[in-house]
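Reopening this ticket.

The earlier resolution said the output was attached, but the attachment link was broken on my side. Pasting everything inline this time so it's all in one place.
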Amino acid sequence: MKNRIPLMIVLTIIYACVITSRSFSLFVNPIERPVIQFGMDSTMVDSLLNHKLETSRFLFRYSAKFRYADQLQSRVSSYESFCDTVSHILQLPKSTLKTPIYLYADSVEQLLCFKGWSALRENQAFTGPNEIHANGLGAIEHEIVHVLANNLIAYAKSVFFAEGIEQYVEIVRSDEVFRKDLRIAKKFISKPWDKWANDTIGFWATGEDESIVVAYPVSGLFVKFLLQHSNLEIFKEFYRAIRTEVSTEAAFYKIYKYPLSKAISDFKKDILSW
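Inline output:
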C-alpha cells in the first residue's frame, strides 16, 4: 500500500489537470466556445404575449399578467407625440417605421420569449435594431430614442455616443435634467473622459452619482458641446463613420479633423462656464 498511495495521488492530479484544461478551454478557446444566439421565440411570444395594441408607430405585445396594461392605454398618445419631439430635436426624416414593443410581466416571461439576454429588472428595457423589450413602462421613451437613431441615423456601435444622443434629447427637453447633468459632470471632471468616449473604459464602469451612471450626463453634454461647435449633420456623419472606421477616434478625426482627446479637453474647459 505504501508504494501505491503516491502513484494514486499522482494519477489523480494528472486526471484533474486534464479535466480542468478541457473545461477551461470551453470558455477560453473561441473555436470551442458555445455561441449564444439572441432572438425571439416566436412560438412562445404568440403563446404568452397574446394581447396586442397597435398604433401608427408601435405594436405593443403583452400578456394578461402585465400589470401596467391600463396605464399603457393612457400613455400611447404621449409615446406617439414623443416620436415627433425626438424627430424635431434630431432633425430626422419622416418615417413609416413601426416599432414592436414587447412588454413582459416579469423576468421569467421575458427569458421565455427572448433568448440569450439577461433578466430585466422592473422598469428596465433594452433595444434591438428595430424593437424594444421592457419589463414595465419606465424606460420606453429612452428606448424609443435609440430605435429612431438606429433606423434613421445609423445602428449604434459606440455605447458612449448612442447613450449620448439619448441623453442630449433629455437635456434639450428639460432644464432640470440639464442642470442636474451639469452638476454631476463637474464633480467628475478630473476623470479620463477621453477613455469613456472611445469606450476604453466601459460605459457602465464609470461610477454612479445621484443614482445615475456618470457617463450618461457626460455623454449627453459632450454631444451638446459638439453641436454647439458644428452642427447636427456633421455629428450624424461622425456617428455613421463609427461603424466603418477602425475606431471611434479614427471616425472622429475623419469628420471633425482634430483628435477626440482634444475635443474632450476643450469640452472640459467649456462646461466650467456653463
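Reporter confirms the inline version is readable. Strands lie at 39-40, 51-54, 58-62, 99-103, 114-115, 124-127, 132-135, 208-209, 212-213. The chain has two domains: 39-152, 159-271.
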